[in-house]
Design brief:
Elements: E1 2-6, H1 16-29, E2 33-37, H2 53-66, E3 70-75, H3 82-87, E4 95-103, E5 110-112, E6 127-128, E7 131-135, E8 140-141, E9 148-151, E10 162-166, E11 174-181, E12 188-199, E13 207-214, E14 218-219, H4 228-232, E15 241-252, E16 260-268, E17 276-286, E18 302-305, E19 314-315, E20 360-367, H5 380-397, E21 402-405, H6 417-422, H7 426-445, E22 449-453, E23 487-490, H8 510-521, E24 526-531, H9 537-547, E25 554-560, E26 572-573, E27 576-577, H10 581-591
Parallel strand pairs: 1-2, 1-25, 2-3, 3-21, 21-22, 22-23, 23-24, 24-25
Antiparallel strand pairs: 4-5, 4-20, 6-7, 8-11, 9-10, 10-17, 11-16, 12-15, 12-17, 13-14, 13-16, 18-19, 18-20, 26-27
Helix pairs in contact: 1-2, 1-10, 5-7, 9-10
Length: 593
């Protein structure tokens, strides 16, 4: 029985005053190990690592072992790869995109000319005939006239009105959604003006949101940007919060191969909330010029004419346009994130340019979307990294340690030229890399056991032919590359989304049963990774073990301490919810098959 220790709890030694009691509680409840869930572990060999991190890590390891808890580090975070990009920016996996420019009249600079997508009825003044509270052009509107209303009395100057969304204190969500067309490999900025009165966002998962999604509620914008209410209320508590008209934005830095998106607004998970908010003047635009550019092997940049007279003519860097720089390592912050709204690069022209004034040119390049950073699976820097990371982990944690490999929630792969050349599909690429990294980890770290998150290999989660984030063509068959010596860490307990294998997998618990059975049939041993901030550790353990009834090869359970909001007392440590450690463990022992 293991549990996850979230990353902020390891960053500094002063957190030991909270970690020690946590380890004592876990040991008393019967836990036998702690999984260190910390992106800093990917930067162990980097000179950029904080000077106090290793002493803190060793102190946490010593405390865990003193309480009889085995220490299990994560390794190879190819989905949430912020630690890797903090280590080396060239480890990031970029996506291809392009921008159209017009040569300025004086031939000194390229002027951005891409048009924005269209959002209709952004001030909510158009309504369905006979339904004054039903907003025209908004395809989905929850509770018109009950939880969502047109309000002519609340508007910014010149807007003519707004939509009012009201919390119903235990009722359903109050959201609006409008789809719109986008160009592939582009970027979108959504803007709305918002004001609020007496919001109570203190319950986990409750928030006023503004979110850019691909089809199927798969959001593109940065996860931290979506909870609008918590940001504008200045903290996670969000009680009795009011604010005046405020400009709010949400950015999608990579549309991938998608041709359409959706803008969602309103209250999510409306239980136990109060208050109201007004939204108006919503609009869309292309997200600035060129930013977060990544230039490396497999990620080239080119400039060519798009005017009819010179179409296809390729221009030369240094002669026709001044050098365009790659994003410097210093632009990646201490958490490894690329900027969500990065500074843009101006493309200037030297006197020797062959471009004509007014000519339209297309710049094709690779960039890294802001927020969650995926890692490249094939670049020379990536190959060097997985070897050095295994060696550094073995040095710190010792041989015969257990590891958790983090191939989870990979938002994009198979996009740079190196990855596309390695395998025909994203699924085949991931299969190759999983097999490749297993051999390198075995040779360099000599692990006792390796666990791996299941979702990218799971046809009942993210490993199917349905679009996932920027992977518009899906990720199918990656499980074929998994070493049978690895153990599946299965967190499919609440997956209710579409899967291409069996469209009936929509009921809570049903996906986990199918997922567990799938990997059982392939001969894998498994851990159930559960809880995930449900607030009821006893019921979570019962539900998870009920879904696993009759499945062979189960080795144990992992208490997932993720939390999306505050938890009681001082048990919200380092970003994790440990309030149900004891209840989860007791129920796991009682109902274990």
């Amino acid at each position: 029985l293991y549990f996850l220790l979230m990353n902020q709890a390891i960053n500094t030694v002063y957190n030991l005053s909270a970690v020690n009691p946590l380890f004592a509680r876990a040991a008393a409840a019967g836990y036998t190990g702690v999984v260190l869930y910390d992106h800093n572990l990917e930067a162990l060999g980097s000179p950029r690592l904080r000077s106090d991190y290793l002493p803190s890590l060793h102190a946490v390891m010593g405390s865990a072992r003193a309480h009889g808890l085995e220490v299990i580090p994560q390794i190879y975070s190819f989905g949430h790869s912020e630690g890797m990009s903090f280590y080396d920016i060239e480890l990031a996996e970029p996506t291809a995109t392009s921008r159209h420019f017009k040569v300025s009249a004086d031939k000194s600079v390229l002027e951005l000319m891409d048009s924005a997508p269209m959002l209709l009825n952004g001030n909510f003044t158009l309504h369905s005939p006979g339904s004054p509270n039903r907003m025209a052009n908004w395809t989905l509107q929850e509770g018109p006239g009950v939880r969502t209303f047109f309000d002519a009395g609340q508007s910014r100057a010149g807007s003519g009105g707004s939509v009012r969304v009201e919390a119903s204190g235990g009722g359903p969500s109050a959201r609006l959604m409008q789809p719109f067309a986008v160009k592939p490999n582009g970027s979108i900025l959504a803007e709305c003006w918002v004001r609020a009165e007496n919001l109570d966002l203190s319950q986990s998962g409750v928030d006023l949101r503004m979110q850019l999604n691909f089809d199927g509620m798969d959001n593109c914008d940065r996860w931290e940007a979506a909870p609008l209410g918590r940001r504008l209320c200045g903290g996670s508590q969000g009680k009795n919060c009011s604010f005046p008209w405020t400009r709010a934005t949400s950015t999608c830095e990579g549309t991938g191969n998608h041709s359409s998106m959706e803008l969602w607004l309103g209250f999510w998970k409306n239980s136990s909330t109060s208050g109201r908010a007004w939204i108006t003047d919503c609009a869309l635009q292309r997200s600035g010029g060129m930013g977060n550019i990544l230039r490396r092997v497999g990620a080239p940049l080119s400039v060519r004419s798009a005017s009819s007279d010179e179409a296809g003519a390729v221009y030369t860097e240094g002669q026709d346009y001044n050098p365009i720089p790659s994003t410097p390592q210093s632009a990646v912050n201490r958490t490894g994130d690329f900027p969500v709204n990065p500074p843009t690069v101006a493309v200037t022209l030297p006197p020797s340019t062959r471009m004509a004034a007014g000519e339209v040119v297309e710049v094709q390049y690779y960039y890294v979307p802001g927020g969650q950073v995926p890692a490249c699976l094939t670049s020379p820097a990536s190959e060097q990294f997985i070897v050095q990371s295994a060696q550094k982990h073995a040095e710190i944690f010792g041989e015969r340690s257990q590891y958790l490999v983090r191939y989870d929630e990979i938002p994009q792969m198979h996009s740079c030229e190196l990855c596309a050349a390695k395998a025909p599909t994203a699924g085949q690429l991931l299969a190759w890399h999983a097999n490749h990294s297993a051999a390198i980890l075995a040779a360099n770290a000599k692990p006792k056991r390796v666990m791996v998150w299941q979702d990218m290999f799971d046809p009942y989660a993210n490993g199917n032919n349905s679009a996932y984030r920027y992977n518009a063509n899906g990720i199918t068959g990656a499980w074929k590359g998994l070493s049978r010596s690895w153990v599946i860490a299965n967190w499919n307990h609440e997956n209710t989304g579409y899967n291409a294998t069996d469209g009936t997998c929509f009921q809570k618990g049903r996906c986990m049963t199918k997922s567990l059975r799938f990997f059982e049939g392939l001969g894998f041993s498994q851990f159930i990774c559960g809880y995930y901030g449900s607030g009821n550790g006893t019921q979570s353990a019962i539900d998870e073990l009920t879904a696993a009834r009759g499945v062979s090869g189960l080795l144990g359970m992992i208490y997932g301490s993720w939390a999306s909001g505050p938890v009681p007392g001082d048990q919200y440590l380092g970003g994790g919810d440990y309030s149900q450690l004891e209840e989860y463990a007791a129920a796991a022992r009682r109902y274990w098959p």
